[in-house]
Design brief:
Elements (H helix, E strand, L loop, with lengths): L6 E8 L4 H19 L4 E9 L2 E9 L5 H15 L2 E2 L2 E2 L5 E8 L2 H7 L13 E8 L8 H19 L5 E14 L2 E14 L5 H15 L2 H4 L7 E3 L9 H4 L2 E2 L4 H4 L20 H18 L5 E8 L8 E5 L5 H14 L4 H8 L39
Parallel strand pairs: 3-6, 9-10
Antiparallel strand pairs: 1-8, 2-3, 2-11, 4-5, 7-12, 8-9, 12-13
Length: 389
């Protein structure tokens, strides 16, 4: 985020029914399916969704998974999201193709460990982690509350409490920052697919409670009703993959910090944890969150850089945004002393060789609660004591 003290900042989220998120969900299901059978599987799966069609493509190395079993799991994903529409359904009307094939031997040779060679990174690239004390989960306020609106809508839609609202939705929250801190909400946008049985005034009143229930009252004081925008185009009946083609990995800013911090460019979904695009971004968030949780800094940015086939990161960059060089040096030394940031070290530290990724595919990979099955392990703050001076 910039160095201005007073400014407006906006972040958006998209629901699990957004076409790109349907694709992310399916790709992460493929990762989990392979890891369930063999925790050392390699997966790089891309998914395309469009009108009554799903196409899987990519590279895998691991157990033999029957194509029909994978196709049935795709249908389960679509059904759980809530799609049974003329243009996109979990039933046989939607055709599903799988074009997954074996991983390149050249890539495997660079990544695998052998002899005296440690396991290398699955690709070159830069990864960022960020944390700040704007919310109790140490995430920027605009993306946190954008996610929350859609997550609550999805829960009520699936339970039957929220009727006539369909799976494809977006939210967007703009905050006014005073002295670098979120002060109040300036505008909220919710766009949601709906049935043809209701009009836009009804949609607006159905969705208003999700804004009110998601954002703390202190941020809503003085909020003007005219700044609450619902379906600004006026109608949103045709949606999901029938309304717009979906692809894995197109919502990387939604997945991370809503634009409040840099992004290295690599997507997460569809990739097993040997791919540092995913695992190193999780590790960077883990470190940044523990630093902020220690209260040594209000916010923290970490950058890691890797080369394909090379085990250790090429560089580690830390910013605490306070120009305290001694504190920055202290933190950098603690990171080097206490965190193994090789691909294998990250996976072992965070327990990433588990089928824990399908649930990450919507409502953000960060700012979530760690779960008993090992998912969202990178959200723990068990290392915060390392950074307490």
């Amino acid at each position: 985020m910039n160095n201005l003290k007073n400014f407006l900042f906006t972040s958006e989220s998209v629901s699990e029914g957004h076409p790109d998120k349907v694709s992310d969900r399916i790709s992460d299901m493929v990762v989990d399916t392979y890891l369930s059978s063999d925790p050392h599987s390699r997966v790089a799966c891309e998914t395309l969704t469009t009108t009554n069609k799903v196409v899987l493509a990519g590279e895998v190395r691991g157990p033999e998974i029957k194509k029909d079993d994978l196709i049935n799991k795709v249908r389960d994903c679509i059904k759980d999201i809530g799609y049974d529409q003329d243009g996109f359904t979990w039933k046989e009307a939607t055709k599903i193709e799988s074009h997954l094939h074996s991983q390149s031997e050249d890539i495997a040779m660079g990544v695998d460990s052998a002899g005296n060679k440690d396991e290398g990174a699955g690709d070159q690239g830069i990864m960022f982690g960020y944390a700040c004390n704007e919310t109790d989960v140490l995430m920027p306020a605009p993306i946190h509350y954008s996610h929350k609106i859609l997550r609550l809508m999805a829960q009520d839609r699936k339970s039957g409490k929220l009727k006539n609202i369909e799976p494809d939705s977006k939210s967007q929250v703009t905050f006014e920052y005073i002295n670098g801190k979120p002060s109040k909400v300036k505008s909220v946008v919710i766009s949601s697919q709906h049935s043809a049985d209701i009009n836009q005034d009804q949609v607006r009143e159905l969705l208003r409670p999700y804004m009110i229930d998601s954002i703390p009252k202190e941020f809503m004081e003085g909020f003007e009703n005219k700044e609450f925008y619902v379906n600004p185009t006026g109608n949103f009946v045709i949606g999901g993959p029938d309304g717009d083609c979906g692809l894995t990995g197109r919502k990387i800013i939604v997945d991370t910090y809503g634009g409040a911090a840099p992004h290295g460019g690599g997507a997460f979904s569809g990739k097993d944890p040997t791919k540092v695009d995913r695992s190193a971004a999780y590790a960077a968030r883990y470190i940044a969150k523990n630093i902020v949780a220690s209260k040594i800094a209000d916010k923290c940015l970490i950058q890691l850089a890797y080369a394909i086939g090379v085990s250790k990161p090429l560089s580690i960059y830390v910013s605490l945004f306070d120009n305290d060089l001694d504190k920055n040096k202290f933190v950098e030394e603690k990171i080097k002393e206490n965190f193994d940031l090789s691909p294998r070290g990250i996976r072992e530290m965070l327990g990433l060789n588990k089928p824990i990724y399908e649930k990450t595919s919507a409502y953000g990979h960060f700012g979530r609660e760690p779960e008993q099955d090992g998912s969202f392990s990178w959200e723990k703050t068990d290392k915060s004591g390392l950074f307490s001076k």
